[in-house]
Amino acid sequence: MQEAETKNGFVNFTEKVGRLTVAGVEEIGMGAMMVVETFYWLIFGRREKQAVRLGAIAEQCVAVGIQAIPIIALLAATIGMMLAIQGIHTLRIFGAESRVTVGISFSVVREFAPLITGIVIAGRSGSALAARIGTMKINQEVDALYVMGINPVRFLVVPAMVAMMIMLPALTLFSDFVGLFFAGVYVNLDLGISLAAYADETIELLSVDDLMHGLGKSAIFAVLIAVIGVVNGASVQGGAEGVGKATTRAVVQSISAIIVTDMLFAFVVTR
Amino acid sequence: MSETPEPQETEASPPRNVIEVRDLVTHYGDRMILKGISMDVHADEIMVIMGGSGSGKSTLLRHLMALEHHTSGTMRILGQDIDELNNVELVDLRQKLGVAFQGGALFSSMTVGENVMLPLFEHTKLDRKTMEIMTRMKLQVVELGGFENLMPSELSGGMIKRAAFARAIVMDPKILFCDEPSAGLDPVVASQLDDLILLLRDALGMTVVVVTHELESAFKIADRITVLDRGEILFIGTPDELRASDNQRIQNLLNRVAEDDTMDAETYLNRLTGDEPAYRPL
């Protein structure tokens, strides 16, 4: 009797693992299809009599990018100053605090600016995308698009993904400047190095490759955030509770994907 | 000078079918939902599809709207076999169909006017002024003139349904599908919507397919009624023929006699698919 129960438990566990694996693979497949469809509609939309509207992309650019400027500025300034504080504290052990600019420049441009920008956009716009598509799905608005002859991917996904692919690198660049500037302000206050000297050293240290390293990453983050938001939104089942779960899941998955991709990108490109 | 008279439809000539469904079979997963449905919808008629919960009427409507793929059978809408259409042809066909969803399905981020204008904006090259005029006209048809700048969240349930009708008819579709138009509305507003459906058929010459379980509404508007039962067609005919039917299940439906609903989940699912007889034998 007990043996049969243990066997049943094992079968149930295996079945659950199997189902979760299949669901995971299905989601990855759906995400890949979403990317392919996005580029298909961008390129062939006009031929299909459903060109992607520039107005919709501009609208999304404002929502994803312009409205995120204040929070990105605040966090970039904070990160820049934090790096300056920690950098000076650590280098002081070796009496090399004047070399803090090296650490700050590379850390901000190659790592912290794209990372913090990606995380903010994942929390702000990725979740909004999942919630929007999820709500539209349960309210039959996605069905309404189909029956009106409007492809939902072209109408909902393409503008959001393109806007993220434009705005995330742009915000990362903005974040670079803000982070470096406020780090410079702290260095000036603590070590007495003038802002002009700090700026000269930063420009001398940084190459276009360093800048592109950060911007390239941010473009990948943009695709990840959009795809994860859309897949979670499109998978919503049930009512408002389902939308809430999908939104939370989208944020957690996006941030995890950003951090893991960041490490992989650094490993592949830096080594 | 002799004029050749226009050919006129005589009483004897068969009605023109705008929808032809033959042996339609559909599955959700392993479960068979529709089990070989065959039916026609004639031009300019109001066809009401009725049935109890889980009878497959909503599934049938989703197939008629070309929203789902069927397992087997054929479906011709406005003379076109939907299995043979490519994407562009399907989009062209959909422009000739209008759908008023049960909950309205208005886009919450757009105003009422923008919602109604959306199909024009997407599928026509009209200038904005013309689109706005057409939108106002359609809103006036559903007695929502002047509401174009309100958001859907500012409308009552009946207004949302009427706005959904305005959006559904803005492209002057040949066929209008309505999913439970009276559901959740008070009797007066529900009756107004019935009048609106009749008006759309009579004034705009649309064929209307309505899914409903409201008997009063069905008898008021229907030219013909289809009754579905466990994924099969139990009856197709006029309201008078339906009333005269001596089929026990139809009489139960008309007289609101409850079937035995005390069953577990598995039995309920089996009842949907007809694998187990949950009804008392007739």
Kindly describe this structure.
Chain A has 271 residues and is mainly alpha-helical. Chain A has one domain (53-270). Chain A has helices at 2-44, 54-64, 69-92, 100-138, 141-147, 152-191, 195-205, 208-234, 240-270. Chain A is globular and about 65 Å long. Chain A starts with a helix and ends with a helix. By secondary structure, chain B is an alpha/beta fold. Chain B has a domain at 15-96 and 175-185 and 207-255: Rossmann fold (3-Layer(aba) Sandwich), CATH 3.40.50. Helices cover 36% and strands 23% of the residues of chain B. Chain B has 10 helices and 10 strands. Chain B has helices at residues 57-64, 87-94, 112-123, 128-141, 157-169, 187-204, 215-221, 239-244, 248-254, 265-273, and strands spanning 17-28, 31-42, 46-51, 72-77, 80-81, 97-100, 175-179, 207-211, 224-229, 232-237. In chain B, helix 3 (112-123) crosses helix 4 and helix 3 runs parallel beside helix 5 (157-169). Chain B is globular, with a radius of gyration of 20 Å. At the A-B interface, helix 4 and helix 5 of A face helix 2 and helix 3 of B.
